[in-house]
Amino acid sequence: MKAMKPGMSEREVQGIHEFVFKKYQAEYEGYPSIVGEGNNGCILHYIENYKPEISSDKMILMDLGAEYHGYTADVTRTIPVDGVFSDEERAIYDLVYKAQDAAINAAKPGVNIQRDLDRAIARKIINDGLVELGIIESPDDRHLFFPHGLGHHIGLDVHDKGNYDKLEPGMVITIEPGIYIPEGANCDKKWWGIAVRIEDCILITKEGSELLSDLAPRHSDEIEALMKQPSPLDSFILPDLEKGG
Ligand SMILES: [Mn+2]
Question: 10-229 sits in which CATH class?
Answer without folding.
Answer: alpha beta
